[in-house]
Write a structure and sequence with these properties.
The protein has 258 residues and is of the alpha/beta class. It contains ten helices and ten strands.
Length: 258
């Protein structure tokens, strides 16, 4: 009987200690609001899940075009971290005081492809563009999306800009550009190489041409901590996690380089 009475206070104190420890973990966990370039959707979803498991912090992700994110950030959107599809937008935000100096870094280098869900439709040299046996070509708005700008640069380098202008279906971002092709509104389209990658490194069905890098400006995708993320432990933790070997393995598996 005496032993039972002795155990009760011990168990009570142990329960209290565990409860306090749990409260401490909850208090330390935080959320970070992240604006993510549309081409980086799949890898970032995987990275965010692993990041939460590793740190307890949660990443709230919003996907879209880099150009629109810039406008939203300037208008006061509560984003704390930007993962852009270029390096110019983060640099501009830093210069204008909306991004933290010295926080900008390249998290991935993207690759442009010409893609169709139809096997054998796009050849491995892009001759399908010159043959012109299609009605519509999808690409992202070059004023909003760096991959769209890269596509227009490639068409210009190939001398095809004027001849194909009437066939271009303009999308708001790179995700929509792919959707136009999938839905049949365009037979083929310029998208990011990462978009046809599935988890495990496998590629989606269809055919594609990996556009030679000399035909467009390098797509250096930079991240930057925004002014609203200053002092946020979760924001700083995610920025660091993107540089980790675990994150780089995921990024590389989706066709990006560094």
């Amino acid at each position: 009987m005496q032993r039972s009475c002795t155990l009760k206070p011990l168990l009570s104190r142990l329960g209290l200690a565990l409860a306090l420890a749990g409260l401490s973990l909850v208090a330390q966990a935080d959320e970070v609001s992240v604006a993510v370039a549309a081409n980086f959707t799949a890898p970032m979803q995987k990275i965010a899940a692993d990041f939460e498991k590793a740190t307890g912090h949660k990443a709230q992700l919003v996907f879209g075009s880099t150009g629109k994110f810039y406008s939203q950030i300037k208008a006061g959107a509560p984003f704390q971290l930007l993962l852009a599809a270029d390096d110019e937008t983060p640099a501009r935000l830093v210069k204008e005081g909306d991004g933290l100096a010295a926080s900008q870094f390249t998290y991935a280098v993207g690759k442009l492809i010409l893609w169709s869900p139809k096997p054998g439709y796009v050849d491995d040299k892009g001759e399908v563009l010159k043959a012109g046996k299609f009605e519509h070509l999808s690409l992202a708005n070059p004023k909003l999306a760096p991959y769209g700008l890269a596509a227009t640069e490639a068409l210009k380098a190939l001398g095809l800009s004027d001849g194909l202008q009437s066939r271009i279906v303009m999308a708001e971002n790179i995700t929509q550009a792919q959707q136009y092709v999938v839905s049949g509104n365009a037979e083929l389209g310029f998208i990011a190489f990462s978009q046809i990658h599935k988890e495990g490194g496998k590629l989606m069905d269809g055919s594609y041409w990996l556009v030679p890098s000399q035909l467009y400006s390098p797509i250096r995708q930079d991240a930057v901590i925004l002014a609203k993320g200053k002092g946020s432990a979760a924001t700083e933790a995610l920025a660091q996690y993107l540089k980790s070997d675990a994150a780089k393995t995921i990024i590389k598996s989706y066709g990006y380089s560094f």
